[in-house]
Amino acid sequence: MTDLSHPPLPGALPDKRQVAASFSRAAASYDSVAELQRAVGNQLLARLPAATTPQRWLDLGCGTGFFSRVLGERLPASQGVALDIAEGMLNHARPLGGAEHFIAGDAERLPLQGNSCGLIFSSLAVQWCANFDAVLSEACRVLQPGGVLAFASLCVGTLDELRESWRAADGLVHVNRFRTFEAYQQLCAASGLRVLSLERQPHVLHYPDVRSLTHELKALGAHNLNPGRPGGLTGRARIVALVNAYEQFRQAQGLPATYQVVYAVLEKPL
To answer: Could you list the residue ranges that cross the membrane (predicted)?
Structure first.
């Protein structure tokens, strides 16, 4: 992606129907392997302005509803709306509560009225949206004046160890692509929302072996969803080559998997 002022070219990010289907299939296993998601969501919560007391909040890309329940406890006087594109996630989240409304919807075309939310919270969801301009535009429309959009996403540099190991093994695309941090900076600056904070922080997880990492990505529904990904079964020779390449990254704690996390807090002007 060279022109940061435009959304990614078609095919640069996964098709959202495939994203929805993949995360729907992962609903039952997601929470058992969601260490990164919990850590990032809690970091995002800690970045909310202290005086955040909305009448209505939106958990955008709510997944299994873990942070919908956290927000429900943290903001008991507020009405909660949990939204996700994956029906399977909503079916898992709905009986666990936390929000008054669980809605199937797309972050690029929110099925909500304008000026209807005081807070939009979105943790590790918007990286799957090809048109991030539309996400920001919709957030600006739905937020009340003075309302806050807080999101966490992933940018270039995420899973570079796995990407480089696959490149050494067969040269094919096996790892999801993400926007640059500079793209997030430029798009947020042009959004009409006031940027209160925008930063990138690495988060590193460690695994005993490659299989543990790839199993977790599949259980999360976040395995390779790229257009042009290799089809069919991965041959044993390529797996051996992948494992041997990844071993070059091994640290004392295990095999590292680095996630470059973008944290942003934006405010709609009064």
So the answer is: none
The phi, psi pair for 21, rounded to 5°, reads -65, -40
Q: Determine contact, residues 124/64, Cβ cutoff 8 Å.
A: no
Please list the alpha-helical segments (H only) found in 170-259: 181-189, 210-220, 236-246
Question: Token digits for 132?
Answer: 């991030």
**166's tokens:** 């696959």
Superfamily of domain 16-158+177-205+256-267: Vaccinia Virus protein VP39 (3.40.50.150)
Going through the chain in order, the beta strands assigned E by DSSP cover 56-60, 79-84, 101-104, 117-123, 143-154, 194-207, 255-267
- Mapped onto helix, strand or coil, the DSSP state of residue 198 is strand
Which residue in the block uniquely carries the two structure tokens 């996700």?
84
> How far is it, in rounded angstroms, from Cα 223 to Cα 135?
23
User: Which of 131-166 are b and which e, b meaning 16 or more Cβ less than 10 Å from the residue's Cβ?
Assistant: bbbbbbbbbbebbbeebbbbbbbbbebbbbbbbebb
The Cα diameter of the chain in Å comes to 60
pLDDT per residue, tens digit, the chain (270 aa), is 222 223 333 334 455 565 555 555 544 444 445 788 899 999 999 999 988 899 999 999 999 899 999 999 999 999 999 999 989 889 999 999 999 999 999 999 999 999 999 999 999 999 989 999 999 999 999 999 999 999 999 999 999 999 999 998 887 777 778 999 999 999 999 999 999 999 999 999 999 999 988 888 876 554 444 444 444 445 788 889 999 999 999 999 999 999 999 999 999 999
